[in-house]
Write a structure and sequence with these properties.
Layout (H helix, E strand, L loop, with lengths): L1 H11 L3 E4 L8 E6 L5 E7 L8 H17 L5 H10 L8
Antiparallel strand pairs: 1-2, 2-3
Helix pairs in contact: 1-2
InterPro entries: DUF3509 (IPR021898)
Pfam families: DUF3509 (PF12021)
Protein name: DUF3509 domain-containing protein
């Protein structure tokens, strides 16, 4: 869990975070709070992502991106580019 704690600390600074007790499915709820103690995000980290491996790193980076969007830290043109990238290309017949 030490690797995960370092990853969360590095990823979410300057926010505070906490992990709830393990859920029956093995996942844990991540709660991120601002400096005033207000909860700004809650997400479940799946059990298989708790080891801090590559999948866990990607999942946590996605959460950080979501937080940045939510907090208005990403410019509108970047948001548009992310949405376009997420679209599936269609090929006409």
């Amino acid at each position: 869990m030490d690797r995960l704690s370092r990853l969360l600390t590095d990823t979410f600074a300057p926010y505070d975070f906490s992990l709830d007790e393990p859920r029956p499915d093995g996942g844990r709820v991540l709660t991120v709070s601002n400096e005033d103690g207000e909860v700004v995000m809650r997400r479940v980290i799946a059990g298989e992502h708790l080891d801090g491996g590559e999948q866990g790193v990607r999942a946590i980076q996605t959460m950080r991106r979501d937080l940045a969007v939510q907090e208005g830290q990403i410019e509108d043109d970047v948001i548009v580019a992310l949405r376009q990238r997420a679209q599936v290309l269609r090929y006409g017949t």
